Amino acid sequence: MSDLDRNYASPFGRAAGRVDAATVDAGLRSYMLRIYNYMSIGLAITGLAALGVYMAAVTTDQAGAAAKFGKEFLTPFGYAMYVSPLKWLFILAPLVMVFAISFGINRLRPATAQMLFWAFAALMGVSLSSIFLVYTHTSIVRVFFITAATFGALSLWGYTTKRDISGMGSFLFMGLIGIIIASLVNLFLASSMLQFIVSVVGVLIFAGLTAWDTQRLKNDYIYGYAAQGGDIAERAAISGALSLYLNFINLFTLLLQLLGQRD
């Protein structure tokens, strides 16, 4: 609060400065709550979409099954989703869409940006639905709660810490590029050791990004959006929710690779 007193000092003295600081503080809490609400709704949409697609893709009717995937029998829809070349469309579509939202967010109306975020979350759920074929359902639930607890603790630390962690950003993004390249290389090598290393390093990177993004969003509001408000702040909240959502999803999938029990 003392930082806000200094940054929002008033010509009428410290008493007025404290009023301004209290106003900004209340606005910050509301702003961050909107971000977490958007992120939570996005995660719920992703989970429902993943479960819905999985349920439509599998069948207990062996005679009518189009294919078998592990222990599961696939419907024609499941074959198209997980076996046919069409699967690449659903794998790559979320990546294309997240770039479109990220680069176009400032030109969109908040309502449009919000709908695109929901659509992206649904596409991500479709893309992630295959985890139900690979991992036991119990381990998926367990890893989800581990991820939620880890994410919550890291985000809370990023919000409350007095330490400036902005310098971590360039290091974390360099690490992110590194694990993306290593993952692409491992598509051809299929090395279990390299995959383990990528998963461990990836968890550390997205753990750091969670705290870093939270502090960045907090500072963005204090030093920018508090004075602007309106559509600018709303678009920023949706963009912030997208950042934290991606951190959560990546943290979840990497922890699932490390801790998940394969079916």
At a glance:
By secondary structure, the chain is mainly alpha-helical. Helices cover 80% and strands 3% of the residues.
Secondary structure layout plus pairing:
Blueprint: H1 2-7, H2 14-57, E1 58-59, E2 67-69, E3 72-74, H3 76-82, H4 87-104, H5 110-128, H6 131-134, H7 137-160, H8 168-189, H9 192-228, H10 230-259
Antiparallel strand pairs: 1-3, 2-3
Helix pairs in contact: 2-3, 2-5, 2-9, 2-10, 4-5, 5-10, 7-9, 7-10, 8-9, 9-10
Q: Return the structural class.
A: mainly alpha
Q: Helix fraction?
A: over 70%
Largest sheet: 3 strands, antiparallel
Q: Give the overall shape, derived from the CA principal axes.
A: globular
What fraction of residues sit in β-strands? under 5%
Rg is: 21 Å
Name the helix and strand elements from N-terminus to C-terminus, one letter apiece.
HHEEEHHHHHHHH
The poorly predicted ranges are 1-19
Oligomer: single chain
Put simply, the count of helices is: 10
Mean pLDDT score:
88
Strands across the major sheet, in which order? 1-3-2
Strand element count? 3
Give the termini distance in whole angstroms.
51 Å
Number of structurally distinct domains: 1
